[in-house]
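Researcher: I'd like a structural prediction for the single chain below. Treat it as a standalone chain; there are no partners to consider.
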Amino acid sequence: MNIEPTSILSRAYMGALNLVRTRSTASLIPPHAGARKVRDGVESVPARRMVRRRGFTLIELLVVISIIGVLASLTVGLSAVASRKSKESRVRADLDRLVTAIENYKAALGMYPPDNPGRPSTNQLYYELSGTIYEQAGARGYFTTPNKQERIDAESIRQVFNARGFSNSARPGETPKVAEEFKASQYGEIVGETDVEILISPVRGPELFSYQGRPPVQLAIPVRGNPKNKLNPWLYDSSSPNRNNRNTFDLWTEVIIGRNIVRFTNWDKDPVVIGRAK
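Model: Treating it as a single chain, here is the predicted structure.
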């Protein structure tokens, strides 16, 4: 059942206001309205008496204020719950979509997308799932996404992703076997000398994360051109022998919801609270 917070407050306010008006308004009430007396053959109207209703007491006023306070606190609580639910549904929807895209990749290429060994937060999923076109420009080779929006050179691939190229790539005039389309809000450009894109979570995450018992490392990645803003990447592992899904891949993200750090994964059905946000 959807409850509009503004509707609750409006109704409470109007109810309290009507009660105040009813209790505090002084009115003149003739006790015998419409009654006429006949004296010596002449009708006369009796004098009207003033009857003043009891005013709005302090106790009643405090009760009304208390009711409004309780309703206001309930409204704040409902808004917080709605915000948490919205964040959870957005993260879950992106996770399900990425899992489906990775499985489609496996069906088309016979393998899961390569990862960046030891660095799950800086992975090449965006390029592998989008597909790329390899073009030679002089002595350098470039990989461009089919929509011509993003381009990365072979040297940057080696430096950032520890790879020689992309598996899901085609020559000019050809089409990659998998060509997943992403919205601009689903990927971001990280700090570096060249344009490098990664898939990002729709919800802000913590600064650090720990993986497979290792010491915490940087999770939030500065945005190129605006290092104060941070990207929260999707983490991906398809090669580690200690991954949770031994025969497939691990995909997860850690986000801040309320005061908690919550982990969404493809190996647990439900999100798990793993800590408190600072």
